[in-house]
């Protein structure tokens, strides 16, 4: 009997239709060899179909399992977040908005001298967004006497509501507890407290950070959006005794929706919770005190996206400290507040680079003049007129060298500084129908309160190195305009097309992350994809004051009409030293080198985005 070939399938034919055809053809050949008929109507064909479907599902499961093992290709959120935790990165659940308010006495004379106690976590409401905020005090309560030193009391507030969950200790080493929360809620990563039998236990990054019998624990965001808490072994960290009451205190916030800026806050605040007098009776705080804006209430963000998690995980510092530029950039990216982040160590700013170049040039100049002087002395003597003239030049060059050296050395003293160049994410600051061209220009800037808040978050994270100083660098804004000329199809309205173009260009500018240049071809491409546009041409114009940063006669546009975002210094040997500290702003008002006055309003005759209709094109009837 001939040996039968059971090789039915091929590795290059694994689609269901190919598997089905190969299986049927094989069965037909067997039936024909035995002298029997075989048709697709046979019940056996149905069995073969089911088996092939099962085989395909098995192959799909295997492929899916392999895909989910790679953080770059994984699709499911739990897979991405789980792989990230293996690197030490803890995906952020979100941050609640925080800031300060001023509380001032109404002082109508009827309550002067009355004692009032305000408890920690007293609830207040902002009527402009309807959200609840909490008064954060350094102690459990604050006692005030109405009308006495209460004209302007600064209080810290944080958006959200406090929630508690309880667990019971087992007395075993390495106890762990998971506290779950409702889906799509944001637990503030910076406000989670653990209490064991009423005593606060410190949160530390890892087990190795716990000292002997230290009352400490590890708090981490859970993959399901909750909170995971881990306790020590006894040698590393204390062990909660059996039956101990373990309470997890946390804040649930609204993320970015809780952000408020000074222009939005005034006269919109009221107390929800009452205060108390010395007898424990309720006191209506709204009748005693007004609340007004202090600092901006900011830093509210949602949990990080899967794409952010994928980018951050490989750069996670296993030492849990902010030791270099990558660690700082990872920390700042997790705040989910910025569209552009650049971090660099000391002596890498434009002024530092210029100080170094000036010092090297001064050394070269001094050496060259001194050499000429010595040659002239050897030739004509030191008392000759030519030698005396060169001697004066040597002295001048020495003074310039000493000055350049002093500036250079002062710049070198800042080499333990970490500089942070931060551009706010404008999309999180737009309200209503605002876009890039209509939002307040303050949306492109970090306020002093926000800068100080960022530095405080870094300081309070416990990850900052003691020997390192942090500074936030303000970007240098150079201004430009966009001039667009379009031909549209005859069945489209110009006003509607113009509105769509402004919206499309706004989206491009907000999401643009290029730090080297902005090609005019990008703008043309964006406009070409707007419905109704037949053809388009465009060019940039610039503010004449841009020359202050680019150099005399240079306004930030190259010979091709592209916007250049680099400026350079000439090194000692004529080489270009490039720096990227410029940020393009397509807002007015400004005047171009040709005297064109660009206004900031879209309703102006000449604004920073101008769209001109050249004509309409009739469609060919078919």
What is the 3D form? extended
End-to-end distance, in Å?
70 Å
Measured by DSSP, the beta-strand proportion falls in 25-35%
> How many runs of DSSP E, i.e. beta strands?
32
Average of the residue pLDDT scores: 83
Number of helices: 12
- Give me the side-by-side strand order of the main sheet: 8-14-10-11-12-13-9
| Unreliable stretches | none
Query: Over all CA atoms, what is the radius of gyration?
Result: 34 Å
Number of domains: 5
Largest beta sheet, briefly?
A: 7 strands, mixed
Proportion in helices: 25-40%
Q: How is the secondary structure organized here?
A:
Layout: H1 16-33, H2 43-67, H3 77-86, E1 94-95, E2 98-105, E3 115-119, E4 123-126, E5 131-136, E6 141-145, E7 153-159, E8 161-168, E9 176-179, E10 186-196, E11 199-203, E12 216-221, E13 227-231, E14 245-253, H4 262-265, E15 269-271, E16 275-276, E17 282-283, E18 289-293, E19 301-302, H5 306-312, H6 325-334, E20 338-345, H7 350-380, H8 385-412, E21 417-424, H9 448-460, E22 469-473, E23 476-489, H10 494-511, E24 517-518, H11 520-528, E25 533-542, H12 547-550, E26 563-564, E27 567-570, E28 576-579, E29 582-585, E30 590-591, E31 597-598, E32 609-617
Parallel strand pairs: 11-12, 21-22, 23-29, 23-32
Antiparallel strand pairs: 1-19, 2-7, 2-18, 3-6, 4-5, 4-15, 5-7, 8-14, 9-13, 10-11, 10-14, 12-13, 16-17, 20-21, 23-25, 24-26, 27-28, 30-31
